[in-house]
């Protein structure tokens, strides 16, 4: 295929390509088909004719989207776009199998957390940059790995209250690198650190943070804490779980929301479910609880 022909395929309107494959695009956004998405985290840049998911890091152009969504190689994706399939007004691909939530193979990954291993890069990040308590890192079973390209990743396991592995969040340890996060297929990364609830007594205090790293900081500061993914990823079942904890244990909740609009919005969302949720204002020079912990840790 000539270069100009490839460029023509890359210039096809990416939102039309996405819709032709069954994706519903509204205001340049769609549910990301590459992870369990409920809040339309995949965005289209019509000027650059690209897509990007700000949760799982999936990104690319028209050919990339066809390759990844239809599981085709480069030549097959180009052929699909150019042989008339794209022109037809009929959706020729059933996306239901892609959009359905695949099961998470916990047994495949459990062994990585039985004896967690931390690379020098992971230790630098956790203990030098974040200044976390080693006991917290052990409690959370944080581990690490290095991919074939030599990129170092921090491996963050998510467990339910009974201690069953439900998902994994992989965090890129290279600053500014993309994608920042990766999730194995079917990972369920809702409320983080649920096993801590088994150590709570009635009427005890529980801190709610935004994201796992803020939870590590709160734990290192001596608080019992859980984490919500973010304001945009808060699910109804997470809210239902929090309401259940509040009712059964009569917990006193605390939160120091991020110093931005999404952080305050998350606090207001949670306060509707947890009326006794206490707001703690971070100093002006601290963007989140992790930042506050690092700057004011004694």
Q: Can you give keywords for this protein?
A:
17% strand, alpha/beta, 12 helices, 12 strands, single chain, four-stranded antiparallel sheet, 298 residues
Structure notes:
The chain has 12 helices and 12 strands. The strands form 3 sheets. A 4-stranded antiparallel sheet has the order 1-2-3-4, with helices on one face. Strands 5-6-7-8 form a 4-stranded antiparallel sheet. α3 packs across α4 and α9 packs parallel to α12. About 5% of the residues have low confidence.
- The average pLDDT score comes to 86
Distance between the termini: 63 Å
What's the total number of strands? 12
**Uncertain residue segments:** 84-101
Largest sheet report: 4 strands, antiparallel
Q: Globular, elongated, flat, extended or rod-shaped: what is the shape?
A: globular
Which structural class is indicated by helix and strand composition? Answer: alpha/beta
Instruction: Report the helical percentage.
Output: 25-40%
Cross-sheet strand order for the largest sheet: 1-2-3-4
Individual helix count: 12
Radius of gyration: 21 Å
How large is the share of residues in beta strands?
Answer: 15-25%
The H-and-E topology, N to C, reads as HHEEEEHHHHHHEEEEEHEHEHEH
């Amino acid at each position: 295929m000539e270069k100009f022909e490839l460029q023509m395929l890359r210039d096809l309107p990416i939102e039309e390509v996405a819709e032709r494959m069954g994706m519903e695009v509204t205001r340049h956004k769609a549910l990301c088909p590459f992870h369990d998405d409920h809040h339309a985290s995949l965005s289209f840049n019509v000027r650059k004719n690209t897509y990007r998911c700000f949760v799982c890091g999936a990104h690319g152009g028209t050919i990339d989207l066809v390759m990844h969504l239809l599981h085709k190689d480069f030549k097959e994706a180009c052929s699909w776009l150019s042989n008339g399939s794209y022109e037809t007004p009929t959706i020729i691909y059933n996306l239901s199998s892609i959009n359905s939530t695949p099961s998470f193979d916990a047994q495949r990954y459990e062994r990585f957390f039985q004896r967690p291993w931390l690379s020098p890069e992971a230790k630098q990040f956790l203990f030098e940059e974040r200044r976390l308590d080693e006991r917290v890192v052990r409690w959370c079973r944080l581990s690490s790995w290095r991919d074939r390209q030599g990129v170092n990743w921090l491996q963050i396991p998510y467990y339910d209250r009974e201690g069953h592995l439900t998902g994994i969040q992989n965090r890129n340890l290279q600053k500014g690198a993309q994608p920042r996060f990766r999730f194995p297929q079917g990972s369920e990364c809702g409320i983080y650190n649920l096993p801590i609830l088994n150590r709570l007594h009635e009427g005890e205090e529980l801190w709610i943070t935004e994201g796992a790293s803020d939870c590590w900081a709160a734990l290192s500061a001596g608080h019992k804490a859980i984490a919500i993914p973010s304001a945009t990823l808060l699910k109804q079942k997470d809210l239902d779980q929090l309401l259940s904890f509040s009712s059964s244990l009569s917990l006193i909740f605390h939160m120091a929301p991020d110093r931005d609009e999404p952080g305050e919005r998350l606090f207001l969302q949670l306060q509707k479910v947890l009326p006794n949720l206490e707001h703690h204002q971070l100093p002006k020079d601290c963007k989140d609880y992790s930042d506050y912990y690092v700057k004011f840790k004694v």
